[in-house]
Write a structure and sequence with these properties.
mainly alpha; two-stranded antiparallel sheet; single chain; about 400 residues; about 5% strand; 19 helices; about 65% helix
């Protein structure tokens, strides 16, 4: 009895229990824990696959690429958008039921863009069909979430047809979408499209951009309009098709959108432009060629002058320092633009819309700049408007 008990204990503890038939080596029986571990270990082939998968996930996390359930959701969304866009092009409109079916995946995309620094959604243990619900109920992130640009690439928005944008954009234009996510969408998706135009923007693309003004005008201004205000100067010799009245397709689109922007945003955008900010627009590039360079105003292009006039024509409230800076830069550009009708129109709009805000020194400067214009049909009414304001100051 004692021998059997001892033998049982030895079996449980993995000790020697006997010798092989030829007496060459002892027989050791594994413990229960050792058996469990051996069963849990993968075969050499599966171990290699697991190592490869772990390595791929590490690379994906390091490069900010989508991985795991999020990647599967974004890949599925890409496939759905491709089908929906094709059907919309054929039928003339998107299938509302099918669009609704991919709502949760679109929310996953928005959540990827909303997270600070591009953080990955915590989706461990969730089935793919539940990820969208997790996004909608709470955006819980870890520091290794796929970044916005990687998420857009995973969905294929750069090359997606415009009907796909009309499906995606409402989720970024919605009031519940964060300004951060909306800005990333504008900078990474809309700006490259508008920059790449060789003919005027289509109605669909224009309305996609226009839809962001209601709840995210700042995102549209900072990430699209301000960069486009610099783009005509940077690409002055870049060729490409030209829209009506000599404007580039980009300037034409920007001009139409500026007319729809809230007055407060227009004032802020003008201030940024005059300070020489915003030329890098979404791509991390260098600033534009206008604005302040080393404390000195530099050259305006005709397209920029036209956009500045579009801003002033909406009559946003401008601080005194912005009006002063505008006059200073107009004075610096008059030698090159004295024959420009657009420059003359800018000065006329400035005299009529803001003459009452100018002090004596500023009126004198505005008058001196205006007198150098060559086009009488804008020069005369602009000087008349300035003279009226001088008379009002004298009477006061």
């Amino acid at each position: 009895m004692a021998a059997r008990t001892s033998h049982k204990r030895a079996r449980e503890e993995g000790e020697l229990v006997g010798e092989a038939a030829d007496g060459s080596r002892p027989i050791i029986e594994p413990t229960r824990d050792q058996v469990a571990e051996a069963q849990a270990e993968p075969a050499p082939e599966s171990a290699a696959a697991a190592a490869s998968q772990h390595s791929a996930e590490a690379v994906a996390e390091q490069e900010g690429l989508p991985s795991g359930p999020v990647a599967a959701e974004l890949a599925a969304l890409r496939h759905e958008l491709s089908g929906l866009a094709g059907a919309a092009q054929a039928a003339g409109q998107a299938d509302e039921a099918c669009v609704s079916a991919c709502t949760l995946r679109l929310q996953t995309l928005v959540a990827c863009c909303a997270s600070a620094g591009g953080a990955r959604l915590v989706t461990r243990g969730l089935q793919p069909r539940h990820i969208g619900l997790q996004v909608r109920s709470s955006i819980s992130c870890t520091p290794t979430c796929p970044g916005a640009r990687a998420a857009f690439e995973a969905v294929g928005l750069a090359e997606a047809p415009e009907p796909a944008l009309t499906i995606v954009t409402p989720h970024f234009a919605a009031a519940e979408c964060s300004g951060r996510a909306a800005a990333r969408f504008v900078g990474a998706v809309l700006l490259p499209r508008v920059r790449g135009l060789v003919k005027p923007a289509s109605r669909a693309l224009f309305h996609v951009a226009l839809s962001l003004i209601a709840h995210h005008p700042r995102a549209l201004g900072d990430e699209l309009l301000l960069p486009l205000m610099w783009l005509p100067a940077m690409n002055a010799t870049g060729g490409g098709a030209v829209a009506s009245r000599g404007a580039t397709p980009q300037a034409e689109a920007a001009g139409r959108l500026l007319k729809e922007m809230p007055a407060a945003e227009l004032s802020r955008l003008l201030g940024l432009f005059l300070r020489g900010e915003g030329g890098q627009g979404g791509e991390g590039g260098q600033g534009g060629e206008g604005g302040q360079q080393g404390g000195q105003p530099s050259a305006w292009s005709e397209a920029q002058v036209e956009l500045l006039e579009k801003v002033l024509s909406q009559r946003p409230v401008l601080p005194a320092e912005e009006l002063h800076e505008l006059l200073q830069q107009a004075d610096a550009n008059v030698d090159a633009l004295r024959a420009s009708v657009k420059f003359g129109q800018l000065l006329l709009t400035l005299a009529r819309g803001y003459g009452s805000q100018l002090d004596r020194h500023q009126l004198s400067l505005a008058k001196r700049v205006t007198e150098q214009l060559e086009k009488a049909f804008v020069k005369k009414p602009a000087l008349a408007a300035l003279a009226k304001q001088e008379a009002a100051l004298g009477a006061g």
